[in-house]
Design goal:
The protein is 30% helix and 28% strand. By secondary structure, it is α/β, with parallel strands linked by helices. It has one domain: Vaccinia Virus protein VP39 (Rossmann fold), CATH 3.40.50. 39% of the residues are buried.
């Protein structure tokens, strides 16, 4: 193995997701994939042949998890950090998933998006896990990459949703995950151009306040908002619920029937 490749491999780990069916190389330090990306994939509707664009792909966790569930996608993963984009490209190849990875600042204008092939009104699905921690209440990591991936600016949400609205065709679906206490901000950002909003609240335990919201919205729809059955990650005993286990193993989509304890 060349010296540069040995150094890169030493700075990464190889981790299993979806019950080990999806193997991802990711940095030892900095932003690392977790439950949020898998939950986002589970809450993203897609069919074979759909053009799917993931904004802020990182090492490709959400997009590749979605493609593991739904074959035949035209998958594009956009990531700001070249190092993470390189890992996303490796991960797609290593898992045998066709995908195109591009380096892109999601908040850049239409010309920058078009320059990497993301023309307006062309995507069937956009999924994204934007940086969402409030800088006023969250102490940013000293690691620059981790800080960029986690801490939002005052305009982050609005800019990312604007980019999704531009990329999606009429009737296309936006799927995103955000912190639960920012629900009002999400609804305000979706007010122009989106309808058929569907929300799933994610709780650490069902009796505790939600910690995340999973949101789907359809470009150009006038259908009313719906709230799906909530997802509790853990039961009263502190162990993962049956639904959480099924979702994280890639065996259940969201919103899910409320038949799991």
């Amino acid at each position: 193995m060349p010296e540069r490749e040995m150094a890169e491999a030493a700075a990464t780990t190889d981790d299993g997701f979806l019950g080990g069916r999806l193997r991802l190389r990711q940095p030892v330090a900095g932003h690392r994939a977790g439950h949020d990306a898998i939950l986002l994939a589970a809450a993203t509707p897609a069919r074979a042949g759909d053009r799917v664009v993931e904004f802020g792909a990182g090492v490709g966790t959400a997009g590749l998890a979605l493609a593991s569930r739904v074959g035949g996608l035209d998958l594009v993963m956009a990531e700001l950090a070249p190092g993470l984009a390189g890992l996303a490209e490796h991960n797609a190849s290593a898992n045998g998933i066709p995908a195109r990875v591009t380096v892109l600042d999601v908040t850049a204008g239409a010309a920058a998006h078009a320059a990497v092939g993301l023309v307006p009104d062309a995507a069937d699905i956009v999924l994204m896990n934007p940086p969402f921690n409030d800088p006023a209440r969250h102490r940013g990591s000293p690691d620059a990459a981790r800080r960029t991936a986690h801490v939002a600016s005052p305009t982050t949400l609005e800019c990312w949703i604007h980019a999704a609205r531009r990329a999606l065709r009429s009737g296309g679906t936006l799927s995103l995950i955000w912190r639960a206490d920012g629900l009002a901000d999400v609804l305000e950002a979706l007010r122009r151009g989106f309808g058929a909003i569907r929300i799933v609240a994610v709780h650490g335990r069902l009796q505790e306040p939600a910690i995340r919201i999973l949101v789907q919205a359809v470009k150009g729809s006038r259908a009313p908002l719906q709230i799906g059955a909530p997802l509790a990650l853990n039961g009263d005993d502190g162990c993962p619920t049956a639904l959480a286990r099924a979702v994280l193993a890639g065996e259940q989509i969201l919103p899910a029937p409320s038949i799991f304890p």
